[in-house]
């Protein structure tokens, strides 16, 4: 059992075939005499933002004997205060020059763009998991074209390790040497094949092995592109093309990772998200129960695996809960979770949406070691790469469904 960042999750109840067990201190579990094909369900509960959060997960149609079950979150969010002081020597931050600073480590990452010459007197860096964590701070100064705001050259870079502790109120100081340096750079060029369902955009990121990233370009979406990128140790370039708005949907993003200055012929195809979400009977929208049927229309050529995400629509709820179903089914009913120890709350309202993560064929493909979640799925707006997972891929999410209400 792991979360988005690959943390092993202990104490999680897991049920297969009516047998309920709990993961051990390294997130492992064992269940004997499992059927050739089976469903696995689990419940994760953790404190966050002064509210208890509870989520149910169900993986349907598994056959492998060694599944790794991944969830978005299962550990508390931590934060630590830092002060950022860039030293520039002869280099000044004139108009058309941007300074970005990013923190990254095994447990999380935080970004600060448009940092001024004096830095931040205090900023909050967040991560998930242990109260103490080690991260690396990266600073980059680059010039931008005054018309397009696209990068034209790179003037300074520095990186420093830092220790963060959520249990203390002291501010951890960071000083970066942002004086002028010679940074090699070049272009990446390529094409985008759009899905054609909404407005387009392109983004370019410098991703570090520390899990930090710095956004280099945010463009309005040409289908033939050229972007100027740096060559910096322990980093690579990611190009991403997207359509739609993830907050409302429908939305899709495709990305090419591990690029370097000089890369040509980069080709990205944006997939179409699922659509036409429906309930049967339609009158069940205000009294959803175990007999209500959910269905959706997958896009032509879509992957064989989907994640059905139910999100609590009740503001001010004492507990923010939700349900995720990892399945190949396009028509389904609400499954039992961990021997009925979890269920969507009676009388509460929910939205439901359909995700895809790359071209996974089935649930077995989603349960290989390291997890399955696309790196762009971990950001609420799905516009930035996060987590330790690397590799080119794609992520889609459908439009919001009509709000449904569980039967009392």
Order of helices and strands: EEEEEEEEEEEEEEEEEEEEEEEEEE
- First CA to last CA: what distance? 32 Å
- Portion of residues within helices: under 10%
Overall mean pLDDT:
92
Provide the β-strand percentage band: over 45%
Polypeptide structure, described:
This protein is an all-beta fold and 408 residues long. The chain folds into three domains: 13-75 and 273-405, no CATH class; 77-177, Immunoglobulin-like (Sandwich); 185-269, Sandwich (Immunoglobulin-like), CATH 2.60.40. It contains no helices and 26 strands. It has strands at 13-16, 19-22, 38-48, 51-62, 77-87, 97-105, 108-112, 120-128, 132-144, 151-165, 172-177, 185-193, 200-208, 213-219, 224-230, 235-244, 251-259, 266-269, 275-280, 293-297, 306-312, 320-327, 331-333, 349-357, 393-397, 404-405. The strands form five sheets. Strands 1, 2, 3, 4, 13, 14, 16, 17, 21, 22, 24, 25 and 26 form a 13-stranded mixed sheet that branches. The protein has a four-stranded antiparallel sheet with strand order 7-6-9-10, with no helix packed on it. A hairpin with a 2-residue loop joins strand 1 and strand 2. It is globular and about 70 Å long. The mean pLDDT is 92.
What's this model, at a glance?
The chain is an all-beta fold and 408 residues long. The chain has strands at residues 13-16, 19-22, 38-48, 51-62, 77-87, 97-105, 108-112, 120-128, 132-144, 151-165, 172-177, 185-193, 200-208, 213-219, 224-230, 235-244, 251-259, 266-269, 275-280, 293-297, 306-312, 320-327, 331-333, 349-357, 393-397, 404-405.
